[in-house]
Specification:
Blueprint: H1 2-11, E1 14-21, E2 24-30, E3 41-48, E4 55-63, E5 67-69, E6 81-89, E7 92-93, E8 97-98, H2 104-107, E9 114-120, E10 123-129, E11 132-136, E12 142-144, E13 152-159, E14 167-173, E15 177-180, E16 188-197, E17 202-203, E18 210-213
Antiparallel strand pairs: 1-2, 2-5, 3-4, 3-6, 6-7, 6-8, 9-10, 10-15, 11-12, 13-14, 13-16, 16-17, 16-18
Subcellular location: Secreted
Domain Interferon/interleukin receptor: 108-212
Keywords: Disulfide bond, Receptor, Repeat, Secreted, Signal
């Protein structure tokens, strides 16, 4: 019995946590410390906080991966959820390992906007598109994150003659089209942008840079 107990403890999943970007929410965990852990199978359940019964996630029942997509199961974004994982190896099952409470609306990370840059004489015109959620409208298009949050855009310009890391904030607000004027011809400029949610005091990573020479 003791050996079984040791095996149970050694395969028990560690560090079970939700990670979420634009409401694409996945449950992640690390394997236990058993040496033969690569043959371990994992089983995932989830529930809404306050419910008594756990639901099996069929696609993540007896898997070898250390990640499980729960985007569809956590689509009521203001509800708090839990996930849990157990492991099985050589006929022995571990106890369940529980995640922290996860509320998508509060905790999802927001992605950067999609940025397009066009230039006209001494100006750059920056077009910004909100990141999309995985959830779809009736007609099939993905719902933008602006439906769920009051988003602001921050637009930064990098003058390539100067230091690469020298980003200057040139615009902050809700406009989807931003014009940056009075730039120097023949100079290479790059634009990066961020999305921010002032209410939650959170902002995205920088978008990939879009560069152009006037």
């Amino acid at each position: 019995v003791m050996e079984n107990q040791d095996l149970q403890d050694s395969i028990k999943p560690q560090k079970v946590e939700f990670r979420s970007l634009n409401f694409n929410s996945t449950l992640h965990w690390q394997p236990g410390w058993a040496r033969e852990a690569r043959d371990t199978l994992y089983f995932v359940q989830y529930k809404v906080y306050g419910q008594t019964t756990w639901q099996n996630k069929d696609d993540c029942w007896g898997i070898q991966s250390h990640v499980c997509d729960l985007t569809h199961e956590t689509s009521d974004i203001r509800e708090p959820y839990y996930g849990r994982v157990k492991a099985a190896l050589a006929g022995v099952s571990s106890n369940w390992s529980l995640s922290c409470r996860f509320t998508p609306w509060r905790e999802t990370m927001i992605g950067p906007p999609i940025v397009t840059v066009v230039h006209s004489n001494k100006s750059l015109i920056v077009k910004l598109q909100a990141p999309r959620s995985p959830y779809k409208r009736k007609k099939g298009s993905k719902i933008p994150m602006t439906n769920y949050y009051d988003l602001l855009y921050q637009v930064f310009i990098i003058n390539n003659l100067l230091d690469e890391q020298h980003r200057v904030l040139v615009y902050e607000g809700k406009d989807k089209v931003v014009k940056i004027k009075d730039l120097r011809p023949g100079v290479s400029y790059c634009i990066v942008a961020k999305t921010s949610v002032p209410m939650l005091d959170r902002s995205s990573a920088y978008s990939s840079r879009q560069c152009t020479v006037l």
